[in-house]
């Protein structure tokens, strides 16, 4: 009995398949958001009366701020390199959805987020994720102390810096998973996976390298 010839597969992950994976993460975020926003009472992560926000609540609030900072980074790069808009806008839109999933407020317009050519200060409210991950100090999505800096003049360098911010934030979120309870951990894992996919897409392009 003849066997069908194997189909010719791509040598490695391609942009389209990774975008599909990131979209799947966004769907998980969307399905989880309704059960997470404002659900601190009565769960296994809630503290006693008068004990203040639970660890899960702090993680959600800090994750929303981190994602808001990441949106501002995208806006700064878009302002400095408008030619990258087609490539960056879908990723930025997904980060905006992450902000909403964590219960954060929507970002301001791209034009008002950051002056052209500058990277905004990274958010400092990361105590919840850092406490869960056992980290010390306050670091922003880039993995470096919060500070403003110029967007690199070369598009490829700007993309690499943005990818580093995505990757560092995804790594910190992944490190926090074991200490975050229940549904918040599933949401954090989904968003961390999307961030890792974004980092790959920002530094590995399969459409001819138009930005190199």
What does this structure look like?
The protein has 212 residues and is an all-alpha fold. It has seven helices and two strands, in the order H-H-H-H-E-H-E-H-H. A two-stranded antiparallel ribbon has the order 1-2. Helix 1 runs antiparallel to helix 7, helix 2 runs antiparallel to helix 3 and helix 5 packs across helix 6.
How would you summarize this macromolecular structure in one to three sentences?
With 212 residues, the chain is mainly alpha-helical. Helices cover 57% and strands 2% of the residues. It has helices at residues 15-36, 55-80, 85-101, 110-113, 127-133, 155-176, 182-203, and strands spanning 118-119, 149-150.
Number of strands: 2
Helix content: 55-70%
Main beta sheet: 2 strands, antiparallel
**H-E string:** HHHHEHEHH
Q: Please tally the helical runs, counting DSSP H or I stretches of 4 or more residues.
A: 7
Instruction: Name the average pLDDT.
Output: 72
What's the end-to-end separation, in Å? 50 Å
Spatial order of the strands in the main sheet? Answer: 1-2
Helix/sheet category: mainly alpha
Query: How big a fraction of the residues is strand?
Result: under 5%
Gyration radius (Cα, Å) is: 18 Å
